[in-house]
Design a protein that fits this description.
It is a single chain. Helix content is about 80%, strand content about 0%. By secondary structure, it is an all-alpha fold.
Length: about 425
């Protein structure tokens, strides 16, 4: 039994604090894809264009990107528990306000506040989960032998739980958006606020304060960490990949032009594939072929998939949208593995720098894709997305030595660290 299987076997034997944090993480990740099936409904309800509504993603992720420079500074001073609760409070307030929006400008602004809260929460959740995880789970995870770039040490099972929460949230977000959004586009926002309020109460009751970091993180530390060649390469490749990812997530609903129920079903299936390939398939592919080969191949396949999506029939577009979840799931996990092991900076600091770069693409794609369509035609946004996926693969290939050799040298060092990096996939 390898480390992954050992971690999976003990996955359910966790204290209530871990389950409370993981449950809130599911809802936090639901918020990313929540608006997917209701984007056309929001556009109709607020008399807005596709380009205006796509700013819901842009404002959300632009704030998330900048917040990555702040989250480490905050959590190293007030502690993980208070940072989680602060983030949840922001989400509850701004998700609720989003449901009351009278214009698309108000909604975009409230989504920005939501993005700040979500950044504070998800950037701290993994560290809290690992810190509160069952010590027996950690011991069993550490007794296994990792392979192909899998995470070493006692955090394996807790990280698997976090990735499972991520996948479940990405799958259920569109489904919740469809179920509630069929009655009104406002209801998914109110529903998210309610669920996050429940998460706030659960963490308040079940999670004790975690030990504060021995050293306080400065606002510039994440940017300094990007001076490392391996981390900069991983971040650059992830930037191009995230443009492709969020072209699919934010622009495809307008291409499919389906009812909330049907669009929600498509993205639920997409999310299920994302979860399965992220948690189950990707680690096994890494163990057999290595991270660089798996990532390069998956990016090329994703490029082909979005190209067919853009030029195929409506049925083909549905199939390719769902299928992209498999490639996205693999990419998310492998990028996490590479960035987790390649930098010599403390993992939370390296994480913040890495996410600071890649979330800018998540903000750019929803803004540019509909405008590229206005300037050209429906197909070109997907051509651009295919090119950016290939650009991400090219960075991986050209910088493969920096991404693998340096990671191997640092593996022992990272395995001995008490803290873990936090990555929002």
């Amino acid at each position: 039994m390898d480390a992954l299987d050992a971690g999976a076997g003990s996955l359910l034997r966790q204290p209530k604090a871990v389950w409370a944090t993981a449950g809130a993480s599911v809802v936090a990740f639901m918020g990313i894809g929540l608006v997917d099936p209701i984007l056309p409904s929001i556009a109709q309800g607020l008399d807005a264009t596709a380009g205006q509504v796509s700013l819901l993603f842009t404002s959300y992720f632009l704030i998330t990107a900048f917040a990555m420079l702040v989250t480490g500074w905050v959590s190293s001073r007030i502690g993980g528990r208070k940072t989680l609760l602060l983030g949840l409070a922001f989400v509850v307030v701004f998700a609720g306000l989003a449901g009351t929006s009278g214009s698309v400008a108000e909604l975009v602004g409230f989504r920005a506040g939501w993005g700040l809260g979500n950044a504070l929460f998800v950037s701290t959740a993994l560290a809290v989960i690992v810190g509160a995880a069952n010590p027996l789970t950690a011991a069993r995870s550490a007794s296994g032998k990792g392979g192909g770039g899998r995470r070493a040490g006692g955090s394996a099972a807790a990280i698997l739980l976090y990735e499972s929460a991520l996948g479940l949230g990405m799958a259920c977000g569109p489904l919740l958006g469809a179920l509630l959004g069929d009655a009104s586009w406002r209801y998914p926002f109110f529903g998210t606020a309610f669920l996050m309020a429940v998460g706030f109460l659960c963490i308040t009751v079940f999670l004790k304060e975690q030990p504060k970091s021995a050293t306080k993180t400065s606002l510039l530390d994440p940017l300094k960490a990007l001076g490392h060649g391996g981390l900069a390469s991983a971040a650059a490749s992830a930037f191009f990949y995230n443009y492709t990812f969020f072209t699919v997530l934010a622009f495809t609903p307008f291409v499919l032009n389906m009812t909330p129920y049907k669009s929600g079903a498509v993205f639920f299936a997409w999310g299920v594939l994302l979860a399965v390939f992220s948690v189950i398939v990707a680690p096994r592919l890494q163990a057999r072929f290595g991270s660089v080969k798996v990532l390069g191949g998956s990016l090329v396949l994703l490029a082909a998939d979005v190209l067919v999506l853009g030029y195929g029939s409506h049925t083909t577009a549905i199939v390719c949208t769902i299928l992209s979840g498999a490639f996205i799931g693999v990419n998310n996990t492998v990028y996490t593995e590479l960035a987790l092991g390649v930098s010599d900076a403390p993992r939370p600091v390296a994480s913040a720098g890495y996410n600071f770069v890649r979330w800018f693409a998540a903000a750019a794609a929803p803004y540019f894709a509909p405008r590229i369509e206005e300037w050209t035609d429906l197909h070109v946004p997907f051509v651009v997305a295919a090119v950016t996926a290939l650009a991400g693969a090219a960075v991986v290939v050209v910088r493969r030595n920096a991404l693998t050799h340096e990671a191997e040298e640092l593996e022992a060092k990272h395995a001995a660290e008490d803290g873990v990096a936090v990555f929002v996939n």
